[in-house]
Design goal:
This protein is α/β, with parallel strands linked by helices. The protein folds into 3 domains: 162 residues, Rossmann fold, CATH 3.40.50.12780; 106 residues, Rossmann fold (3-Layer(aba) Sandwich), CATH 3.40.50.980; 92 residues, GMP Synthetase, Chain A, domain 3, CATH 3.30.300. The protein has 11 helices and 20 strands.
Length: 420
């Protein structure tokens, strides 16, 4: 069955039965031109930044290379300069802390109409994995209006699905007890994995993982334990939370093309990556009122997939996100070490519920220190041997065993660095 997202794109663009990759491309480029004009007229940052940009030649995403990138540090330094509406029209402000720009937080602004577009996309995306009459438990924040949980609850109501917002997993047993009897669970990858490895008796029909990149080892671990189907979602605050969602084929994200233009560029040169080539994901919002973002560099590593999806979809898809470029730590003589690679290795071991990682860098060498939370019956000697064979050369390994809280909140998983 073709992903409902493609039907949604056909309706929201007005292309309907005329929808193809080519007609979508032309439609999106017209919206890019309109977005640039809107931003130049209403936004202090883009009025200066795009003052001399000629939009007449924008015919394909390749021509976007004439438009300068927007970087996270630009937003962090002067967030209010991106606003295109009066403050009284802003319904939601999200503050994101960043390691760049001297630690200044980014502030992302939305109007109520911006958030309504996200609810509309969520309703479409959730119909992939749940249907009218079923129940969904949201294991994500939902205490405030326009939080992720609130947006999902509103979206699910539109497709006849009853939703309960539990919040992030802080007490694992309480979350497991709450999940009993629900058809679909929505949560953060590491938190849901901890639940699955703690209690294999839950039987949801489907699980949606979001809010962080999703290693294949976590998908397989949850599917094996709960005998359910796991779907993943790609998005971030800057995309308006929603970005793309898998279909039943599970091969790439069907994208929110009616509201966002996706590019993949070489992270060094900034030039367009060829289809199938990995690079940095760049987004341009096509209908944002409060805070349009034009060629915003996300820092995420992925590639675009072209050609038909096994579900029958015909539009370009984004392949799985392989983590963030900033989180790939260079190791002299041994390439790079990343949390994505480490997650694939560690979570592939059935007895691991969670872990934390710290890389200690000193003149005496590099030491990777892992604190691992395991089930009682895991063979620790075999686990240590497996890791010693798998971890990159040039890194010594230290492992201790203790409880590692599953609650990630809004933080992304990463390897902490200590320099001595």
């Amino acid at each position: 069955m073709t992903s409902p997202v493609e039907t949604w794109v056909a309706e929201r663009t007005g292309l309907k039965e005329r929808l193809t990759a080519e007609t979508l491309n032309r439609w999106q480029m017209e919206r890019v031109k309109q977005t640039i004009e809107y931003a130049r007229d209403n936004c202090a940052y883009y009025a200066k930044r795009l003052r001399d940009v000629d939009t007449s030649g924008l015919e394909t995403p390749y021509h976007m290379q004439s438009i300068p990138f927007t970087r996270p540090e630009d937003v962090a330094l002067h967030p209010e300069s991106f606003l295109c509406v009066p403050q009284r029209e802003v319904s939601r402000i999200v503050t994101l802390f960043t390691s760049g720009s001297s630690g200044r937080p980014k502030r992302i602004f939305f109007t109520g109409r911006d958030m309504e577009k996200t609810v509309d996309f969520f309703a479409c995306g959730m119909s992939t994995m749940t249907q009218s009459g079923e129940k969904t438990l949201v294991l994500m924040s939902g205490a405030t209006e326009y939080s992720i949980g609130d947006l999902l609850k509103k979206a699910l109501a539109r497709i006849g699905v009853k939703a309960h917002i539990h919040g992030n997993v802080k007490d694992v047993q309480r979350a497991i007890d709450a999940a009993k009897g629900f058809d679909c669970l929505v949560g953060v990858p590491a938190e849901v994995m901890y639940m699955a490895r703690t209690d294999g008796g839950l039987r949801p029909k489907s699980v949606l993982l979001s809010a962080d990149y999703v290693p294949e080892s976590i998908i397989k671990g949850i599917e094996d334990r709960w005998r359910c189907r796991v779907f993943t979602h790609y998005g971030m605050t800057e995309t308006g939370f929603g970005g793309g969602v898998q279909c039943s084929a599970g091969l790439g994200y069907h994208l929110r093309h009616a509201d966002l233009l996706f590019e993949v560029v070489d992270p060094q040169s900034g030039r367009q990556a060829a289809p199938g080539q990995y690079g940095e994901v760049v987004i341009t919002t096509l209908s944002r009122e409060a805070m349009p973002l034009i060629r915003y560099r996300t820092g995420d590593m992925a590639r675009m997939l072209e050609g038909a999806c096994p579900c029958g979809g015909i539009l370009p898809r984004l392949d799985e996100v392989m983590g963030r470029y900033a989180n790939a730590i260079p190791i002299e003589g041994a390439g790079h070490l990343s949390i994505h690679r480490l997650d694939e290795l560690v979570f592939a071991v059935p007895g691991v519920r969670n872990y934390s990682a710290k890389l200690i860098i000193s003149d005496r060498g590099n030491v990777l220190s892992l604190t691992v939370d395991t089930t009682h019956n895991m063979d620790r000697d075999r686990f240590l041997g497996y890791l010693n064979k798998s971890i990159a050369r040039g890194v010594s390994l230290q492992v201790c065993y203790a409880r590692v809280s599953p609650c990630t909140g809004t933080a992304k998983r990463r390897i902490y660095i200590e320099r001595r």
